[in-house]
Design brief:
Elements (H helix, E strand, L loop, with lengths): L1 E7 L20 E6 L5 E5 L12 H13 L8 E3 L2 H4 L16 E3 H9 L4 H12 L2 H14 L22 H14 L1 H4 L6 E4 L7 E4 L11 E9 L3 E10 L2 E10 L2 H18 E7 L7 E5 L5 E5 L4 E6 L6 E8 L2 E2 L7 E9 L2 E10 L8 H14 L3
Length: 383
């Protein structure tokens, strides 16, 4: 017998929400994602090829963070500064201002990359890890493919002036989400507003973070700016407010002011026009289902992953969440057995479903108890 339990009126279509024709962002290409639900709230030519410029440095940091986590690199390790790296500390480039022959710790290099966007620090880190920047770029591209960045190729660690260094705002969004999700502690570096480098041969130099949204009291805590003459201005940004996070990426802003203003507008639009709804928490009991001939008459169920949905504000009445299963379910039942489905509908249309798993084992009754229960059912219709 099919059992159908309604849980609550909650969720929304898992489609891209780009229906507000009046809203637009003054950028060549842009995308906005609700972090927890994964919903794309807005996109504009999101798969158009771009030069990612200094947003490339997000992947430079990710590769280093993974090596540190795996024990193949330490923050205290020191790398020699080559002339090749030092030349990028000249005028016209974002720099940490390291000197030829310096030995700089991985921790300082990461601060120089993340906070002040130092190209010289990128090259030094890349050469220290992989021998050459070209070899390091191969590691970056391999990681990009692994995490689903299907339209990205990295040709260097900094993002400067190489036509083979290309991506899309969708891929930069995927990379940004991966960083925040997998390295939450390390991600905190992206919100630091100033870094002071005690440089060789001169007074310590302090530089501010180049992300303009960090200074606007919006709740933005990252991620990375970019600029190339051919691409204009770009920005990957993330806002965290009231337990909710959005990720925005835009490229082809005409001016610095456009980059700051339009990115803030995109993030605020997402926060004010949509609600985030929590449907279920992973590995937490959701609903009980009936058991037949088991040592328990009911068993709790759960889903494997957190389920969040993003809904246009004021649309909850169109949403339903319910579970279905063929029951009562006969014992024995093992933990993690699939017992049914958690289904989500919008306007009575199925838009998502998830496996409903057994929360625990349920053993079968002994033969005498099973016989008594079966007789009771036949006589009294009592399970």
């Amino acid at each position: 017998m099919i059992k159908l339990n309604f849980l609550t009126l909650l969720t929304i279509v898992t489609l891209t929400f780009n229906s507000n024709a009046a809203f637009d962002v003054n950028a060549r290409t842009a995308i906005l994602q609700d972090y927890l639900s994964g919903e794309i709230l807005y996109e504009k030519d999101a798969d158009k090829s771009i030069y990612p410029a200094s947003m490339t440095k997000i992947m430079t940091a990710i590769v280093a963070f993974e090596l540190i986590r795996n024990g193949d690199l330490n923050l205290s390790d020191k790398f020699y500064v080559s002339e090749n790296a030092w030349r990028l500390s000249s005028a016209g480039y974002s720099s940490m201002f390291i000197m030829v022959g310096d030995e700089v710790s991985v921790e300082d290099l990461l601060n120089g990359i993340i906070i002040v966007s130092g190209n010289d620090a990128c090259v030094t880190l890349a050469e220290g890890i992989a021998g050459t920047e070209e070899e390091f770029a191969l590691l970056m591209t391999l990681k990009a493919k692994e995490i689903g960045m299907e339209n990205t190729n990295f040709a260097n660690a900094s993002g400067i002036n190489n036509t083979n260094n290309n991506s899309t705002v969708r891929d930069i969004m995927i990379m940004s989400k991966y960083l925040i999700e997998n390295f939450p502690e390390e991600y905190k570096k992206f919100s630091i507003k100033e870094f002071t480098w005690d440089r060789t041969g001169g007074e310590p130099i302090s530089q501010g973070n180049r992300n303009p949204l960090l200074y606007k009291n919006l709740g933005v805590d990252g991620i990375k700016t970019g600029y190339l003459a051919v691409e204009k201005y770009s920005l990957a940004s993330s806002i965290y407010r009231n337990g909710r996070r959005l990720i925005a990426v835009g490229s082809g802003f005409n001016t610095k002011n456009d980059r700051s203003r339009e990115s803030a507008k995109l993030l605020n639009w997402g926060l004010t026009n949509f609600d985030l709804i929590k449907i279920a928490k992973s590995h937490a009991a959701i609903e009980t289902v009936e058991v037949w001939l088991g040592k328990k008459n009911f068993i709790n169920t759960y889903v494997k992953n957190d389920i969040y949905k993003t809904i246009p504000r004021g649309r909850k009445k169109y949403l339903k969440v319910f579970i279905t299963y063929n029951g009562p379910i006969q014992a024995p039942i093992k933990k993690d057995d699939i017992l049914g489905k958690l289904k989500i509908t919008y306007n009575n249309e199925l838009i998502d479903e998830y496996d409903l798993l057994a929360f625990e084992d349920v053993k079968k009754l002994n033969i005498f108890s099973r016989l008594i229960k079966s007789i009771n059912f036949l006589i009294w219709d009592d399970v």
